[in-house]
Amino acid sequence: MKNIEEYKTVFFLGIGGIGMSALARYCLFLGKSVIGYDRTESKLCQTMVAEGATIFYEDSAEIFQAKLKEQNAAYETTLVVRTPAIRESAILEFCSNNHLVIKKRAEVLGLLSQEPCTIAVAGTHGKTTTSSLVTHLMKNCGFSIAAFLGGISENLQSNFYFSGNEYVVAEADEYDRSFLHLHPDWAIITSTDADHLDIYKNKEEFAKGFALFADLVPKGKLLYRYGLEFTEKGFSYAVNDSKAEYYSHSLVMKGEEIEFIFQDTIQNQSYTFSWNIPGVHNVENATAAIALLLQLGADPENIKDALKSFTGIKRRYTKQVFSDGTVYIDDYAHHPTELQAVMCSIRSFNPNKKLLTIFQPHLYSRTRDFMQDFAQVLSTSDHLILIDIYPARENEEDFPGVSSRVLSDLITLPSVHVCPLGEALDSIKEEIKKEKPDIILTAGAGDIDSLYEPLCEFLNSFKNEE
């Protein structure tokens, strides 16, 4: 493959994906003609069109050819970047038959990570918050970076940032073993709870994938959550565990802020930090990011200032508080461990409050593989609405006996309402009127995010009716 800068046109098959769109924005930044296809139009797609991309929504080789013609794009100077989530496509077949260069997103990101000093953040959970925080801290501490993130940073209002070529910050995605294409000089591993068993087949293969990723990192340049089995590769971090080389403790809520003490046992130093991002799991993410910045030589006072100004990631514990005291939290959690972390944070900081949870399972395979775990976590809510499974790349007929209805039968709450997304808003409204919950949580990685704005509008009008 040529260097990406030698291509005049880049076509993204699945441009609306969060990882694909970060690369697309980089290509726009380079001045490339960017064309993309996705199954559905999203706000992210609309934003990229406003930024200069051409996007269409029909899997048609004829439309693809027409868009290339509009851009005066030759096949030999066009790079096709595909997401592994799209496995069959008329466009992909056409590109293959006509010998266009086709690369997976991970391969392109791997190419970009070869020359700069690359910081890769991996983990089943926490990698988006941690990589976004690393980017924010490095940006505010004066580092020259290009960042490719798996979520929309509230500070940047983007999943891509560029201030120079000295460092690359990349979210290292374990799906399809994508992270094995990277060339990390530094890395963080936040967690290795099994996931994507449709790819890895079992927990042992999943763990092996992370072990292979850790082997890519130079010795002494890996930071990993304490308890993971990477002791020969680098340094551990934790919350409330002094056995780790870096750990945070003495967490205290001061209004909306969390204050904590960060302990660096290597340099025998301690620092007091505070920020506005809730949740013990997020303090753990911050501990990893702070440890990395210290390893890179950043000034602790600059880190303190930058941490206080970090406002989070869209759909990572996005919180709205209404004037009547109702709290609405929207989160991307789609694995039982992530969901448990969010719900535990809600319970920790809001004791004795009534919680209504609206959850949309993501993928039939994940729902099947973790059915009992999801049921156990969801049973800790006070009231629950389950939305039909978001299939993404999967087909319902391939997973007989797997559904939100089957999941609901395992949940120990007195009643669980199950409905399609199209009926969810009305069901939520009725549940709010009936139960008057103190806290409302919407969670999932599918299209449940489409409920966010109309639900906020309803909560504003509903409180005015009271």
Describe this protein's structure:
There is one protein chain. This protein is of the alpha/beta class and 466 residues long. The longest helix is centred in the middle third of the chain and has 16 residues, at 280-295. The protein starts with 8 loop residues before the first strand and ends with a helix. The strands form three sheets. Strands 8-7-9-6-10-11-12-13-14-15 form a ten-stranded mixed beta sheet, sandwiched between helices. The mean pLDDT is 92. The protein contains 16 helices and 21 strands. The radius of gyration is 22 Å and the shape is globular. The protein folds into three domains: 4-105, NAD(P)-binding Rossmann-like Domain (Rossmann fold), CATH 3.40.50; 113-308, Mur-like, catalytic domain (UDP-N-acetylmuramoyl-L-alanine:D-glutamate ligase, 3-Layer(aba) Sandwich); 318-465, Protein-Tyrosine Phosphatase, Chain A. Helix 11 packs parallel to helix 13 (371-378) and helix 15 runs parallel beside helix 16 (452-465). Helices cover 35% and strands 24% of the residues.
Helices, strands, pairings?
Blueprint: E1 9-13, H1 18-29, E2 33-37, H2 43-50, E3 54-56, H3 61-70, E4 78-82, H4 90-97, E5 101-104, H5 105-112, E6 117-122, H6 127-140, E7 145-153, E8 158-162, E9 167-172, E10 186-189, H7 197-200, H8 203-215, E11 222-225, E12 234-239, E13 246-254, E14 257-264, E15 269-275, H9 280-295, H10 300-308, E16 318-321, E17 327-331, H11 336-349, E18 355-359, H12 364-369, H13 371-378, E19 383-387, H14 404-409, E20 417-419, H15 421-435, E21 439-443, H16 452-465
Parallel strand pairs: 1-2, 1-4, 2-3, 4-5, 6-9, 6-10, 7-9, 10-11, 11-12, 12-13, 17-21, 18-19, 18-21, 19-20
Antiparallel strand pairs: 7-8, 13-14, 14-15, 16-17
